């Protein structure tokens, strides 16, 4: 190792500073730090990496992008990062992709079409390598046209689009069949004797809400049960929305079970029923959808459909890595399962 001095904290750490400390050329440092295919002796590589770590050197990502045509960044669109569903999905995505040096930019659109389009334009302008639609599409015609235009332009410049949700965007996909998973829970309730089943749906401007609602209606039809609009209410995918919707349903009819199309609404429904003198599940059973962490700790532990949220993110990252490596890939399909806890029993005689 050279006896040359270590630059002071006030000096800018550069390739040249690393080269001086490692006693190699600037070109050698560049090859090591950019993971170039140009051969570098293992002992030399080790000296360069030790010098870089000692100096706290971070490669200039913009400069690297000019050489590799990759920015090592991925733009991810979610609706609300504070929602446990999206937090778990993004964790799966990040845990798998960060090993390749990629970094995620995550943007919460709050289900606002203009805000989501604004983030998509920003990701495009910053030349991320991939756009990830982790959240459901919004049911808005102008939004759809603009997204299709933006994605088409992004992909024409070599960008990759990855879809991890119920979304119209063209791209590689990790698919979870929300209709089939909803129908599976309807079958579960019917098989236990329930015939009057209330349903709490999410916001009607979300594709995933409509797919779960459609799955509910089709499952009732298949099981020869009537669909009663009085037993259906919208709950905004929130705890408070679930409270309101549950009381609306029990006021309009006499359901023996309420199926909420996400766990937050199911937890809200249980809370509202208990607060208003109903026993859960003895008077009214309640089922959810997602199997978020809170489901197990609900006022009554929640029977729910488990969505493999972490695996959706992880499989998306694996798919993305393979695409970036130039491999031919096929879409991935994942399925859910019903997790039985204490919130569902057979209806009262």
Report a brief summary of the structure:
With 349 residues, the protein is of the alpha/beta class. Helix content is 44%, strand content 15%.
Describe the structure.
It is a single chain. The protein has helices spanning 15-22, 26-33, 42-55, 61-68, 84-97, 113-125, 141-156, 178-191, 207-222, 239-252, 263-275, 309-324; strands at 73-78, 103-108, 130-133, 160-163, 172-176, 197-201, 232-234, 257-260, 285-290, 303-306, 332-334, 337-339. It is elongated, with a radius of gyration of 26 Å. The strands form two sheets. It has a six-stranded parallel beta sheet with strand order 2-1-3-4-5-11, with helices on both faces. Strands 7-6-8-9-10-12 form a six-stranded mixed beta sheet, sandwiched between helices. It has 349 residues and is an alpha/beta fold. The chain is built from twelve helices and twelve strands. The chain has three domains: 15-59, Orthogonal Bundle (434 Repressor (Amino-terminal Domain)), CATH 1.10.260; 69-176 and 309-334, Response regulator (Rossmann fold); 178-307, Rossmann fold (3-Layer(aba) Sandwich). α6 (113-125) runs parallel beside α7 (141-156).
Give the topology.
Elements: H1 15-22, H2 26-33, H3 42-55, H4 61-68, E1 73-78, H5 84-97, E2 103-108, H6 113-125, E3 130-133, H7 141-156, E4 160-163, E5 172-176, H8 178-191, E6 197-201, H9 207-222, E7 232-234, H10 239-252, E8 257-260, H11 263-275, E9 285-290, E10 303-306, H12 309-324, E11 332-334, E12 337-339
Helix pairs in contact: 1-2, 1-3, 5-12, 6-7, 8-9, 10-11
């Amino acid at each position: 190792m050279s006896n040359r001095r270590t630059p002071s904290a006030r000096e800018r750490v550069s390739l040249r500073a690393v080269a001086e400390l490692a006693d190699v050329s600037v070109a050698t440092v560049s090859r090591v730090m950019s993971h170039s295919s140009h051969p570098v002796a293992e002992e030399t590589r080790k000296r360069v990496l030790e010098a870089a770590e000692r100096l706290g050197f971070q490669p200039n990502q913009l400069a690297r992008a000019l050489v590799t045509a990759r920015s090592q960044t991925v733009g991810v669109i979610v609706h609300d990062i504070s929602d446990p569903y999206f937090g778990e999905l993004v964790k799966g995505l990040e845990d798998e992709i960060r090993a390749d040096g990629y970094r995620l930019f995550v943007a919460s659109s709050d289900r606002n079409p203009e805000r989501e389009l604004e983030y998509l334009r920003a990701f495009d302008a910053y030349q991320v390598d991939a756009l990830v639609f982790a959240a459901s599409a919004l049911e808005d015609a102008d939004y759809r046209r603009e997204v299709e235009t933006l994605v088409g332009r992004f992909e024409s410049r070599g960008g990759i689009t990855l879809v991890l949700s119920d979304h119209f965007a063209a791209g590689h996909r990790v698919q979870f069949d929300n209709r089939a998973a909803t129908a599976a829970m309807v079958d579960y309730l019917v098989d236990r004797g329930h015939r009057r089943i209330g349903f709490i749906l999410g916001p009607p401007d979300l594709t995933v809400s409509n797919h779960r609602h459609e799955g509910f209606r089709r499952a009732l039809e298949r099981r020869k049960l009537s669909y009663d609009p009085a037993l259906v209410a919208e709950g905004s995918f929130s705890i408070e929305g679930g409270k309101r919707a549950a009381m609306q349903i029990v006021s309009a009819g006499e359901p023996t079970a309420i199926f909420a199309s996400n766990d937050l609404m199911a937890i809200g429904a249980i809370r509202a029923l208990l607060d208003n003198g109903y026993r859960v599940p003895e008077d009214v059973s309640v089922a959810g959808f997602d199997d978020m962490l809170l489901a197990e700790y609900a006022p009554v532990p929640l029977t729910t459909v488990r969505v493999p949220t972490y695996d959706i993110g992880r499989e998306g990252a694996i798919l993305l890595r393979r695409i970036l490596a130039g491999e031919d890939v096929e879409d991935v399909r994942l399925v859910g399962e019903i997790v039985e806890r204490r919130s569902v029993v057979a209806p009262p005689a």
